[in-house]
């Protein structure tokens, strides 16, 4: 199908995952991606695949913080879901670990004696849809703009350029 055809899809696992992760990085930290380094490959778990199905990316943000991404479609058949969406933030005061499919955030604070769990319910898409409907009803600008999409795409394309060049790419 089109999803695994490089000419039709425009990219593979790196394109599929990176645009969303860059959106999150920009939203959570209010920062821009300033540098990307990537290693990208095809056929890791799917021999004969001609589009990237795995990639490891490193990002540098305008705040000086760093992020990494495992952009992969290469989960074995025994994996509990088709994939996973996990984010781990390590900071001076502790660690926050988000698992989108388990619908909770685990917080490990240096001040707390045990982990704290924050649940957000069964429908992670509700806020996105609600915002879209409210934008129409209230006749206001969207919360997510075309420029947000462009910034995410810019970092994603920089990842592909980095993989081809074998070096970090400045944005």
Automatic annotation (TrEMBL):
Q: Which Pfam families match?
A: GFO_IDH_MocA_C3 (PF22725)
What residue stretches are annotated with the GFO/IDH/MocA-like oxidoreductase domain? 2-96
Query: Out of the domains of life, which is the source?
Result: Bacteria
- This chain belongs to which protein, by name? NADH-dependent dyhydrogenase
State the organism named in the record. Answer: uncultured Chloroflexia bacterium
């Amino acid at each position: 199908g089109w999803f695994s055809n490089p000419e039709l899809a425009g990219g593979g696992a790196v394109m599929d995952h990176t645009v969303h992760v860059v959106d999150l990085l920009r939203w959570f930290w209010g920062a821009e991606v300033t540098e990307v380094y990537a290693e990208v490959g095809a056929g890791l778990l799917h021999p004969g695949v001609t589009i990237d199905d795995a990639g490891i990316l490193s990002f540098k943000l305008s705040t000086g913080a760093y992020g990494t991404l495992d952009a992969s479609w290469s989960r074995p058949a025994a994996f509990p879901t088709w994939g996973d969406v996990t984010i781990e933030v390590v900071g001076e005061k502790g660690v926050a670990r988000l698992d989108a499919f388990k619908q909770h955030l685990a917080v490990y604070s240096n001040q707390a004696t045990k982990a704290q769990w924050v649940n957000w319910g069964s429908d992670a898409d509700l806020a996105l849809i609600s915002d879209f409907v409210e934008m129409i009803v209230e006749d206001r600008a969207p919360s997510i703009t075309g420029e947000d999409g462009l910034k995410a795409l810019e970092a994603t394309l920089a990842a592909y350029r980095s993989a081809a060049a074998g070096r970090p790419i400045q944005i």
